[in-house]
Amino acid sequence: MTDHIKPDLKTHFFLKNCLCVTGERAPTHNHSSPEILVGTLGIIPLWAKNTVLRYRFNHTSAVALEQLHRTEEDFIRLFKKAIGMWGDAAPVTFKADDAAWDFEFDIRKDKFCFEGGCVLASAFFPDTGRHQLVIYPSMFNHNEAEQVETLVHELGHVFGLRHWFAKREDGNGWRAEVFGRQDPVTIMNYDDRRTLIDESTLTDADKTDLIKLYDSAWSGGIKHINTTPIVLFESFSSKILRANASITH
After folding, report:
1. What is the DSSP letter of 43?
2. For the whole model, what pTM was predicted?
3. Pick from 237, 177, 179, 209: which is nearest to 50 by CA?
4. Using one digit for the tens of pLDDT, what is the confidence trace for 215-232?
């Protein structure tokens, strides 16, 4: 079964008829071409230093994976490859934990398609809540390299990055802010449908700018970007584990 619905202002298309619905469009009169963009809900949400994000699979993922002839181990292998692509630039570490978890892998058995393409995955931005990293079956129609690239892109959102074009889009949304060099070739962009150029590529600049952003935020060197405040979040699991530790002592 496939759900077909019309795209809304939160939908972003790219060349291969694949979509990402993580984040909203953020209009502005500034039409510069930033390397990375950050900011949503009127703040720039980032993770506190030494954050560990704990994950688990939700109870319905096993059925979907079985239908896709894949296992949890197969998916985790892809996920770890994506983490490895970010390397030392990743501002958090990840750990499996079925009890104190921050997000669930939600592997869907039904496609989620719009007019013009299908959603491959959707993620979340930093905050203190619990979330889902949703994977749709359409992602597995692509080769392994593209599956990993999809996860690298979604991890960018988890780290606090917006779509490259978020600042240029029309419509209603939250303000996005520019940080770093100007280059449309970035993992947070999509393929150019006009020039047929693949601009969705993880670059050294992506990683360098992300490291610089977090180092500056953690040190207190920057507290705002263009007047938008930076907010550092603890993970949900860190609060749970700290509370449990205080009870046992």
Report:
1. B
2. 0.78
3. 237
4. 999 999 999 988 889 999
| Look-up of token digits 């590529």 | 201
**Structure tokens, 67:** 């239908």
The upper half-sphere exposure of residue 9, i.e. CA atoms within 13 Å in the direction of its Cβ, equals 12
Exposed/middle/buried for residue 58 (C-beta within 10 Å: 0-12, 13-18, 19+): middle
Q: How many CB atoms lie within 10 A of CB 202?
A: 22
**Inside any domain, residue 74:** yes
| CA pair distance 3, 158, nearest whole angstrom | 26
Residue 15 lies in a domain: no
Do 186 and 35 touch, CB atoms closer than 8 A? yes
Q: How many CB atoms lie within 10 A of CB 48?
A: 17
- Tell me the pLDDT tens digit for each residue of 103-154: 999 999 999 887 768 899 999 999 999 999 999 999 999 999 999 999 999 9
Specify the CATH number for the domain of residue 48: 3.40.390.10
H or E, element range at 54: strand 52-57
Quote the tokens at residue 84.
Answer: 């490895």
Q: Under 8 Å CB-to-CB from 87, ≥6 apart: which residues?
A: 207
Residues 6+ apart with CB under 8 A from 67: 109, 137
| Structural domains of the chain, count | 1
Residue 16, token pair as written in the block: 């291969």
DSSP 3-state of 164: coil
Alpha-carbon span 47 to 139, nearest angstrom: 27
Which stretches within 110-235 are classed as H helix?
Answer: 144-158, 204-219
